[in-house]
């Protein structure tokens, strides 16, 4: 990661470092799209800014990033407020408890982690109260048999329940079914997992034609995700540097 090499006596200014990381990521996205016969403009980069300050969000916005992601409401709510002038789309990508729906519905444009009916109902009620429309993705657990690992629960609906969760979202005025999201399992081939996500994505799209988002791909696997049809990448470390272990 570029950040490590630069931790010396003569640090590169943060904005330059992030600009270099973003240029590198964009080049890799373009190459992966070319290899997959896809158009780079069909793959959106969501900068996941968790653990990094609002000043980094501002730098990213200055570099043309329009979409940012966060995984904890306590951190996201104040950051979104501090960056309210930037006109960004805010993506909530983390595990979400129903009691946080009220807060998230105030600033999030897209919630990637809707994995149960009750959460859809809570978000729907809060979206209506705020007079906002939220796009919701059905988070799919691609590893339903796994025990929770060192990073804690990753959430997601069993693939067999994905259509029911999509229907629960669709039933809520104020919510729109946007597509699907997943985190690749820790074990096994991410490509195979993304193929399984795609089959869920196409079932959801058959039923809800506007639900075109396939949110897949993180810093460690985004090229594979592009080959597998991802439309939205959620990139943290590749843009901003490695986080402390065990944070999100
Ligand atoms: C942190 C996080 C990301 C970004 O991960 P990186 O490996 O830093 O790119 C993507 N998706 C979710 C759900 C996350 O919590």
UniProtKB/TrEMBL annotation:
Pfam families hit by this protein: Ala_racemase_N
Alanine racemase N-terminal domain span: 22-243
Protein name (Swiss-Prot/TrEMBL): Pyridoxal phosphate homeostasis protein
Function recorded in the entry: Pyridoxal 5'-phosphate (PLP)-binding protein, which is involved in PLP homeostasis.
PTM sites of type N6-(pyridoxal phosphate)lysine: 50
Top-level taxonomic group: Bacteria
Record-stated family: Belongs to the pyridoxal phosphate-binding protein YggS/PROSC family.
Listed GO MF terms: pyridoxal phosphate binding
The UniProt record lists the keyword Calcium: no
């Amino acid at each position: 990661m570029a950040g490590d090499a630069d931790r010396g006596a003569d640090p590169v200014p943060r904005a330059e470092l992030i600009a270099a990381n973003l240029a590198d990521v964009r080049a890799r996205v373009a190459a992966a799209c070319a290899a997959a016969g896809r158009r780079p403009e069909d793959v959106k980069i969501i900068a996941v800014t968790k653990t990094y300050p609002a000043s980094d969000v501002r730098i990213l916005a200055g570099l043309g990033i329009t979409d940012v992601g966060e995984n904890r409401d306590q951190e996201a709510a104040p950051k979104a407020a501090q960056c309210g002038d930037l006109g960004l789309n805010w993506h909530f990508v983390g595990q979400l408890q129903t009691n946080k729906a009220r807060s998230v519905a105030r600033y999030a444009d897209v919630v990637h982690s809707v994995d149960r009916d009750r959460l859809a109902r809570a978000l729907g009620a809060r979206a209506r109260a705020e007079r906002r429309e939220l796009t919701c993705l059905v988070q799919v657990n691609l590893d339903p048999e796994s025990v929770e690992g060192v990073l804690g629960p990753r959430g997601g609906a069993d693939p067999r329940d994905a259509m029911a969760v999509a229907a629960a979202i669709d039933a809520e005025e104020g919510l729109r079914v946007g597509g699907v999201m997943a985190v690749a399992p820790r074990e096994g081939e991410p490509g195979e997992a993304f193929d399984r996500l795609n089959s869920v994505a196409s079932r959801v799209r058959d039923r809800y034609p506007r639900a075109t988002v396939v949110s897949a791909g993180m810093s460690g696997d985004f090229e594979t995700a592009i080959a597998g049809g991802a439309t939205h990448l959620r990139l943290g470390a590749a843009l901003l540097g490695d986080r402390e272990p065990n944070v999100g």
